[in-house]
Amino acid sequence: MSALNRFLHDIYHGQEILRAGRVPREKIETHPQFRREMMGVEVPGGIYAHIAGIDLVKDGNGEYYVLEDNLRTPSGVSYMLEDRKAMMRLFPELFSQQRIRPVEHYPDALLEALQARGTATRPPPLSIVLLTPGHFNSAYFEHAFLAQQMGIELVEGQDLVVENGHVYMRTTQGRQRVDVIYRRVDDDFLDPWYSARTPRSASRGSCPPTGRAT
Which of 69, 87, 115, 126 keeps 20 to 30 A from 180, CA to CA? Predict the structure, then answer.
């Protein structure tokens, strides 16, 4: 993660890696996810990506390689957690005979990472939410699963409002300040102008958690 964040910082600042020819400039500047608006912008802690989904492959010789680094909205971890539970029920002998590392602590580790990001600027207790496009999204099961496992609110864009530089969540008890947003929405769909012109970005009708107004 450190190397990936350093790479992104260089792309949006000195661009030394491009000037050295290590990465072709056109590959970066013509990429649809390259944001010229971010040139020169300093992000908190120099962290552009807090969570990464690293895809590994194993070749015929038993060597592992990184297939790709997913930094935007990596998904799939909930299926891994559920699959592990099923495997432990169906093939308990595999886990008794092999040294297989546990994975069930992932939601706790993720929550700790989100809390650490928030406490860098605000003392606890923190209000953390998971921002989802809605139940039409293919990964909505994971969004709901992780929010439930971490004990945080699952919200959509219409549940949030910005006032005086702070984000608030609409609830049945009034507006509640939000300290950390775990975003599971792609960059393009965060832009109201873009979303209004892209019907598939509007995902409404998801079931809200108790205590949240619709």
Answer: 69
31 and 82 housed in the same domain: no
Provide the edge-to-edge strand list for the sheet that holds 174-178. Answer: 160-163, 166-171, 174-178
Task: Check which CATH number belongs to the domain holding 79 and give it.
Answer: 3.40.50.11290
Please tell me which residue, 45 or 14, carries the higher pLDDT value.
14
Task: Report pLDDT digits (tens) over 156-213.
Answer: 998 999 999 899 999 999 999 999 999 998 877 776 666 555 655 444 333 333 333 3
Residue 90 has pLDDT above 80, yes or no: yes
Residue 212 within a domain: no
pLDDT attached to residue 203 = 47
Other CB atoms within 10 A of residue 23 CB = 14
- Measured CA to CA, the distance from residue 134 to residue 138 in angstroms comes to 9
Q: Is 120:114 a contact under the CB 8 Å cutoff? A: no
